Amino acid sequence: MQSPIRFEIRDRVATLTLDRPDKLNALVPEMKEGFKEALAKAAEPDVKALLLRGAGRAFCAGGDIGWIAKALSEARWNELEGLLDLGAAVAHGLATLPKPVVAIVHGPAAGAGMSLALCADLRIATPEAQFNMAFVKLGLHPDWGGSVGLSRLVNPAVAAELMLTGDTIDAARAQALGLVNQIVPTDHLETAVEQLGRRFAQGPAGTYARIKATLLHHQGLDADSLRARLDAEGAQMKAAMRHPDAREGLAAFLEKRAPRFS
């Protein structure tokens, strides 16, 4: 079985690629070891920056709805909660990685896919990129650091709007809100990514680490308090998954109909 995570280091820049293009890189428990290994290697001294990417036509469509719905119907709580715990670990690892993390977003970044993009320090998007916190439409709560990331990056009213409606926003609005740093035409994306990688590769690693620590500090966070926020987010998602609305929301999505929430 092909690994759902690809990882490589070239010219002191690491790239983690979600590699389930036929499923729009939807997140599944089988990614645990790939994420763990990638974050460990990205933390090595010779690596100056980490890029997050998705294979195919999407960045990441979020959790694998088919897998989640089946696991929920079979009450496989350990597996479901394991996927949520993986998300919290990845979000914490990316935020505290002592070097720049850049998400390269093309196509959809939905649900936990948007959360993953928000875990990065910078986001580059193509004009076709789309972002949404779709959890509420499934009767679910944001996870993979989504609520934490939004609260760090935008004002409370905007965070509330995106999480309570689950509406999709395009790259232009995402940039206007401060969620996207740069929009690059699709045919120039690889050149822009290569140039940014080269710039970070030539920069001061120790200063990168200090800047990231300072940014967390000015947001009232450190590694422990960030972990506490991620744990609180995860607890709400675990509770949401056990509510009938989650089963109804997931079923409605798979059946392509409007949900009938309680």
Summarize this entry quickly.
49% of the residues lie in helices and 15% in strands. By secondary structure, the chain is an alpha/beta fold. Helix 1 (32-42) runs parallel beside helix 3 (77-96).
Walkthrough of the structure:
This protein is α/β, with parallel strands linked by helices and 262 residues long. It is 49% helix and 15% strand. The protein has helices spanning 32-42, 65-73, 77-96, 112-118, 146-153, 156-165, 171-176, 189-201, 205-218, 223-241, 244-255; strands at residues 5-10, 13-18, 49-54, 101-105, 108-110, 122-125, 130-132, 168-170, 182-183. Strands 1-2-3-4-6-9 form a six-stranded mixed β-sheet. The protein is globular.
Task: Furnish the topology, listing elements before pairings.
Blueprint: E1 5-10, E2 13-18, H1 32-42, E3 49-54, H2 65-73, H3 77-96, E4 101-105, E5 108-110, H4 112-118, E6 122-125, E7 130-132, H5 146-153, H6 156-165, E8 168-170, H7 171-176, E9 182-183, H8 189-201, H9 205-218, H10 223-241, H11 244-255
Parallel strand pairs: 2-3, 3-4, 4-6, 5-7, 6-9
Antiparallel strand pairs: 1-2, 7-8
